[in-house]
Structures are given as structure tokens and as C-alpha cells.
Amino acid sequence: MELDAAGREAKVEIGGKVWRVAASALTAAAEPDRGAPAAAIHLRGGRLPAEEIDLHGYTVEEALERLERFVERAQLHGLGQFKVIHGHGRGRVRAAVRQWLGRHPAVEGFGFGPPAEGGVAVTIVRLKP
Fold first, then answer.
1. Nearest to 124 by CA among 84, 70, 73, 71
2. Cα(63)–Cα(41) distance, integer angstroms
3. Which residues of the chain does CATH 3.30.1370.110 include?
4. What is the DSSP secondary structure assignment for residue 120, as one 8-state letter?
5. pLDDT tens for each residue of 23-38
6. Tell me, which fold does domain 47-129 have in CATH?
7. Interacting residues of 120 by C-beta distance below 8 A, sequence separation 6+
8. I need a surface site. Which of 79, 83, 102, 116 has the fewest CB within 10 A?
């Protein structure tokens, strides 16, 4: 759909949803077959995202940017649940993450991890199917 001014990030539409992806992850598509969509993209690095994201050491803004990209990849790959490791600290990243998750339309629910998996230093996220 568009490329940012620096040429580092692209906005693409896949399956009726708009995604932000690194421009370096895009490759030119082969000439479409008749009856195929006029425009197509292929994402390099089609691996499933890890089932957790560690946000230790990031500012609130950096953590939310990383989380947003992670959720987009998780949705794209059909990952239903994942763990956000935000740590204890002063609780600013934890609070921002939980507030952001509460407003995200793809999030079905979330809660703290069990004590053996980090307790309040971890948030377990469930995405809508």
C-alpha cells in the first residue's frame, strides 16, 4: 500500500487486514497467473514467531512497538497464545503492555503467568481465532 519516507517499513494489506512489515522482508512477486489477484506479496522469513517476547530493558515506547510487531506476526501465523515477559521493575512496561492489550481488537484475553512461570513479571496473551 505504501512505504515510509525512510524506505524501511511498508504498509501492506493481507486478507483484508493492514500490516506493517519491514521493507526488507518483502520480495517482488512473480507475474500473476490469469485469475490470480493483480497484486501479491511474499514475506521472507516465514517462520512462526517464538511463543514469547522478552521486553526487558526497553522503554515503554520501544516495548509497545516490539509488542505490536510481535502480535502482527502471531496473527499472521495463527499463533493462539504467547507469553510477554516484562519483568517486575517499576511496573511501567507491565502497565503499558496490559493497557495496550486491553484495547487491541485481536486480543481475546490476558492474565498474569502462573508463579512457576514468572507470576506478575509475565503476561499470558490469548488471541482471537
1. 84
2. 28
3. 47-129
4. G
5. 776 766 666 555 555 5
6. Ribosomal Protein S8; Chain: A, domain 1 (3.30.1370)
7. 88, 94, 112, 113
8. 116
